[in-house]
Amino acid sequence: MSPNLLGTQEPSNKANISTLSMRCLKGCVGAEVQDIDLSAEMPEGAFDWLRNALDRQALLLFRGQSLSPDDLIAFSRKFGPLQEVAQKHYQMEGKPEIYIIGNAEEGGRRVADKSVGRLWHSDQSFIQYPAMGSVLYGHQCPAEGADTLFANMFMAYDALPEETKQRIEGLHALHSFAQYYELLRERDPSQPPLTDERRAAYPDVVHPLVRKHPRTGRKALYVNPAYATRIVELGEAESRALLDQLFEFQVRDDFVYRHKWREGDVLFWQNVGLLHKGTAFDESRYTRRMHRTTVAALPDDYARSLLETDGRLVS
């Protein structure tokens, strides 16, 4: 696919990126970027090309990569500052920007978070300025299971009935890390207790049910069952009913792409317009080790993602 099919102007220095090409993964979301080595220095114009591609496709796949932790951090930082995750005990030693996911062990000690991400969610929606993007590298991937599903919230919003769009614009959901984490510990008692310090570091936050992409302006349904606990403007029963309706609608099959991992895969996705969740695998047969970085959203990015009525949310 030529870069001009993304709805943006083709870069003037295309001679330096002429080897880059894309193919769509599925009509609802994503494209595979071919002929690029993420561990090497990018050719001139490649960053802008990839940024435009991410804006339009929401998810980018790079296959056949071999990335050291420093390579992964360096590539991710090209797109913005990196933020640490709330699960501090699964950060890579000496590289806190990298969050290890899976069931991998080192010296008989588990170093990867095996139970995270099994509910539909958007990364870091429980903080004031949720993450712009996430980069996930398949270091060790099971031969079966451990897929990642992505749901396109731009398409979900577009498909909502007009009366529902009018109803939810101006409504806001409370997002809670503490409530999510307590439910996580019920499923995985090996997770350490939530300390008062961590609870204070991640207080509940409020986000609108509708946000827009900060550069394209396309509206997305911004709510997820992992972190959104209630709609602040509604009573408990009405809030629960509307959330359940939206949660069921937003993950219709025609909005969802299922990624089957190969070792060396890198996925880079934007969080304002995608939900994702992981699937189970046979932990007695396979080792899974994934390295994730999280690209922060700056306050100005967040402000540009708000509808005019939500400017009060930016301080």
Which terms would index this structure?
315 residues; alpha+beta; Double-stranded beta-helix; 8-stranded mixed sheet; 3-stranded antiparallel sheet; 8 helices; 18 strands; globular; disordered N terminus
Q: In DSSP terms, counting alpha (H) and pi (I) runs of 4 or more, how many helices? A: 8
The name of the CATH superfamily reads Clavaminate synthase-like
CATH fold-level topology: Double-stranded beta-helix
Shape, please? globular
Rg from alpha-carbon coordinates:
19 Å
CATH architecture: 4-Layer Sandwich
Number of self-contained structural domains: 1
Report the CATH C-level class: Alpha Beta
The share of residues in extended strands comes to 25-35%
Mean pLDDT over all positions:
91
Beta strands, count: 18
For the record, give the distance between the C-alpha atoms at the N and C termini, rounded to a whole number. 41 Å
Q: Helix share of residues?
A: 10-25%
Order of helices and strands: EEHEHEEEEEEHHEHHEEEEHEEEEH
Strand and helix map with partners:
Elements: E1 21-26, E2 29-34, H1 46-57, E3 59-62, H2 69-77, E4 91-92, E5 95-102, E6 105-106, E7 109-110, E8 133-140, E9 148-152, H3 153-159, H4 162-168, E10 172-175, H5 177-187, H6 196-201, E11 205-208, E12 210-212, E13 219-221, E14 228-231, H7 236-249, E15 256-259, E16 266-270, E17 274-278, E18 289-295, H8 299-304
